[in-house]
TrEMBL record, chain A:
<feature type="domain" description="Gfo/Idh/MocA-like oxidoreductase N-terminal">
    <location>
        <begin position="40"/>
        <end position="125"/>
    </location>
</feature>
<dbReference type="Pfam" id="PF01408">
    <property type="entry name" value="GFO_IDH_MocA"/>
</dbReference>
<dbReference type="InterPro" id="IPR051450">
    <property type="entry name" value="Gfo/Idh/MocA_Oxidoreductases"/>
</dbReference>
<dbReference type="Pfam" id="PF22725">
    <property type="entry name" value="GFO_IDH_MocA_C3"/>
</dbReference>
<dbReference type="InterPro" id="IPR036291">
    <property type="entry name" value="NAD(P)-bd_dom_sf"/>
</dbReference>
<protein>
    <submittedName>
        <fullName>Dehydrogenase</fullName>
    </submittedName>
</protein>
<dbReference type="InterPro" id="IPR055170">
    <property type="entry name" value="GFO_IDH_MocA-like_dom"/>
</dbReference>
<dbReference type="InterPro" id="IPR000683">
    <property type="entry name" value="Gfo/Idh/MocA-like_OxRdtase_N"/>
</dbReference>
<feature type="domain" description="GFO/IDH/MocA-like oxidoreductase">
    <location>
        <begin position="133"/>
        <end position="262"/>
    </location>
</feature>
Automatic annotation (TrEMBL), chain B:
<dbReference type="Pfam" id="PF22725">
    <property type="entry name" value="GFO_IDH_MocA_C3"/>
</dbReference>
<dbReference type="InterPro" id="IPR051450">
    <property type="entry name" value="Gfo/Idh/MocA_Oxidoreductases"/>
</dbReference>
<protein>
    <submittedName>
        <fullName>Dehydrogenase</fullName>
    </submittedName>
</protein>
<dbReference type="Pfam" id="PF01408">
    <property type="entry name" value="GFO_IDH_MocA"/>
</dbReference>
<dbReference type="InterPro" id="IPR036291">
    <property type="entry name" value="NAD(P)-bd_dom_sf"/>
</dbReference>
<dbReference type="InterPro" id="IPR055170">
    <property type="entry name" value="GFO_IDH_MocA-like_dom"/>
</dbReference>
<feature type="domain" description="GFO/IDH/MocA-like oxidoreductase">
    <location>
        <begin position="128"/>
        <end position="250"/>
    </location>
</feature>
<feature type="region of interest" description="Disordered">
    <location>
        <begin position="322"/>
        <end position="354"/>
    </location>
</feature>
<feature type="domain" description="Gfo/Idh/MocA-like oxidoreductase N-terminal">
    <location>
        <begin position="5"/>
        <end position="119"/>
    </location>
</feature>
Length: 337, 354
């Protein structure tokens, strides 16, 4: 199977490239033509491909001329649309980095383009593939938790601007922490509630931590009400210290009428301390979520297994984040259409 | 500390948590209740150290300070009677069910020149006190985003808890602890949004659950999430917090800090197993010592009646938001929060701060 990676703008691009490089039966080609416009100090394009030990071509057209079976889009958020539409035009299945887009208009156009071209559009929500999520989903769907009352979730990370400056560019990223981190848990709940829909969003945000350093929101709390009666509050803040040994994490507690359960998507770690480097050590040993997601996108889900988020799901979680911004502007809850 | 004459009003769960603290402090305790529960509580102390008052007047007559441990809906009336009699008052949280009632109580305390102390015991939990002290010293920089959770069993032991008209419901009765703490750390709260789910009326059948989520916006711009659960009968009492700012993060999960753990003990009957042991001083003892000290000439307690008022204001706004579905502006002054918390207490968490 021939798989392309389009753009190295996103920090996850390197992970996808390594994963595909090492995946048996997969041929990989990458292209990062916008590398020339990248900020100084960010290794991109041919140089980055060489570091990763993967093949690179200078134009997207050259990559599509190679005849890929599927591509992964890892550009800046606002540039997803052009690349997804390019994949659709070439009749190639496309897995798009999250969030799907930065506007509903772009997201709808991407979904329509892929539908019309008859290609699959997936959105990269790897936490769906966490065994902890699978267990939570089973607990809820089997009736073990009873009716879901509340969910308290947190998806925290450090300010991602260090590796890629566009993450804090309001235009390219479409926002800050609320755009970056609301959507993972919003997607999990969209998948978990299978058919129940978010109907109202209330959000508050601030930039107290990075005032004067970046222009976007860096802390946010987003409350989502669902038409099954459940209500979830998501802490989407980039409130994890820069030098902390972990990048952050994703945890949630779900309170049901019959049981309360919790998941920690990145809790499977051996922890310790390295005396020579005088720093904490954390050795993750859990499932490779990106690997599970990409394999599922390329080869399909196991029976009853979790599917990769499709374009419609990506659009729904994007709407939650965008409604969060609208609510924060207005200072009151806003309905989702 | 000179021996203090304390009038304990009420003989329920919280009175039973306060009474051992008063005895430890060497107070002369007189208890009063409208039924015979006060006499029964006193009778449990065969050494005669706990006397019983037959009337409220008799209780006030023999007390220098009064400890109001009655159901929330009676706080105002009971506390006003004690304040009008010129007695210092420690009053269980919430001080009352509305900000107006609390303002009336504060006015009466001011007129009488006595102390009205809101018994926000979480201020005296050592993990919370340690965190508040560090935050006040700048450990995380300016707090930007805060989270608090609190889980206990649904309070089915006394019927009034489940009735929101009597207790205020979970947002007012339970989550007020964390509303108070969020305000202590990040300052006054200007906007609140909340939802409540689950069982919210009396009677509360065994096995029912209520849960609520609230988002606070502070005048500083900081934001706080508070999640409260009145859970199933097997729910372990558990609290967590996470306070983050530019310069760091402080977090706690009471489930991760048990310093003494029973790993297995077979299928022993209730009450026959190895007992859970407090490894540090009861927060109630720390709390009431600070109150007793204040009313006998010592320094003012770390938590003030105004703190109690603002906590009620936030909690009532949260309950209003949950009822109406809109966010609620509290009308609180945009002033900076109170001063740094007092000296740290050293005691063990217990299932008391519901």
């Amino acid at each position: 199977m021939k798989v392309g990676v389009l753009s190295f703008a996103h920090v996850h691009a390197a992970g996808y490239a390594r994963l595909l490089r090492d995946m048996p039966g997969v041929e990989l080609l990458t292209s990062d033509p916008d590398a020339v416009a990248a900020p100084p100090g960010e290794v991109r394009g041919q140089a980055f491909a060489e570091q990763l030990g993967v093949d690179h071509v200078p134009t997207y057209q050259a990559l599509f001329d190679w005849g890929p079976d599927a591509v992964i889009v890892a550009s800046e958020n606002s540039r997803h649309r052009a690349l997804v539409e390019l994949a659709a035009k070439h009749g190639v299945d496309v897995l798009c980095e999250k969030p799907l887009a930065t506007t509903v208009e772009d997201g709808e156009a991407m979904v329509a383009a892929c539908r019309e071209a008859g290609v699959r559009l997936g959105v990269a929500y790897p936490v769906r593939f966490s065994p902890a999520y699978t267990a939570l989903r089973e607990a809820v769907r089997s009736g073990g938790t009873g009716r879901v009352l509340t969910v308290a979730g947190a998806n925290n990370g450090g300010l991602p601007a260090g590796a890629r400056a566009w993450f804090v560019d309001p235009e390219l990223a479409g926002g800050g922490a609320m755009m970056d981190h609301t959507v993972h848990i919003a997607d999990l709940l969209d998948e978990l509630f299978a058919g129940a829909r978010a109907v109202e969003v209330y959000a508050q945000s601030n930039n107290l931590m990075y005032e004067g350093e970046v222009e976007v929101d860096t802390a946010g709390l987003v409350t989502v009400r669902y038409d099954n009666g459940a209500v979830a509050t998501i802490d989407c803040s980039w409130s994890h210290p820069d030098h902390h040994p972990t990048w952050g994490g994703l945890e949630l507690q779900l309170v049901g009428e019959k049981a309360t359960v919790e998941m920690d998507a990145f809790g499977q770690v051996v922890s310790g301390f390295d005396e020579r480097n005088r720093s904490g050590v954390l050795l993750p040993w859990g499932t490779d979520l990106d690997g599970s997601m990409v394999r599922t996108f390329l080869y399909g889900a196991a029976d009853g297994g979790v599917q990769v988020a499709d374009g419609e799901a990506g659009l729904r979680s994007l709407r939650v984040a965008l409604a969060g911004y609208e609510s924060a502007r207005q200072g009151r809850p806003v309905p989702l259409d | 500390m000179p021996e203090l004459a304390v009038g304990l009003i009420g003989a329920g769960g919280i009175a039973r948590a306060h009474l051992p603290a008063w005895l430890e402090l060497g107070a002369r305790v007189t208890v009063f209740t409208h039924d015979d529960s006060g006499a029964r509580l006193a009778a449990e102390h065969a050494d005669g150290r706990v006397r019983v008052a037959r009337t409220m007047e008799e209780l006030l007559e023999g007390s220098e300070a009064v400890d109001v441990c009655t159901p929330t809906h009676t706080h105002r009336e009971v506390a006003l009677a004690a304040l009008r009699a010129g007695r210092h008052v420690a009053c269980e949280k919430p001080l009352a069910l509305t900000p107006g009632d609390v303002e009336e109580m504060i006015g009466e305390a001011d007129r009488a020149g006595v102390l009205l102390f809101p018994a926000h015991v979480v201020r005296y939990f050592p993990e919370y006190a340690a965190m508040a002290d560090a935050v006040a010293r700048g450990a995380v920089g300016r707090p930007a985003v805060l989270r608090f959770t609190r889980t206990g069993t649904y309070p089915v032991w006394s019927p009034w808890f489940a009735d929101p008209t009597l207790s205020g419901g979970i947002l007012v009765d339970q989550m007020i602890h964390d509303f108070d703490f969020a305000r202590l750390l990040a300052g006054d709260v200007v906007r609140v949004h909340a939802h409540v789910r689950g069982h919210q009326e009396a009677p509360a059948p065994a096995g029912c659950v209520a849960a609520a989520t609230a988002v606070l916006t502070h005048a500083s711009g900081a934001i706080s999430h508070v999640h409260g659960v009145w859970g199933l009968p097997d729910a372990q009492f558990r609290t967590t917090f996470r306070v983050a700012g530019r310069d760091g993060v402080l977090q706690h999960d009471s489930a991760q800090t048990k310093a003494f753990r029973v790993i297995s003990q077979g299928g022993r009957a209730d009450g026959e197993g190895i007992p859970a042991t407090n490894l540090t001083e009861s927060p109630f003892l720390t709390e009431l010592r600070e109150f007793a000290s204040a009313v006998t000439g010592g320094p003012a307690p770390r938590v003030t009646a105004r703190d109690g008022l603002e906590a009620v204001r936030i909690a009532v706004a949260a309950a209003e938001s949950a009822r109406t579905g809109v966010s609620v502006e509290t009308g609180a002054p945009g002033a900076h929060p109170g001063g740094a918390p007092g000296p740290q207490a050293r005691n063990e968490s217990q299932e008391v701060a519901r």
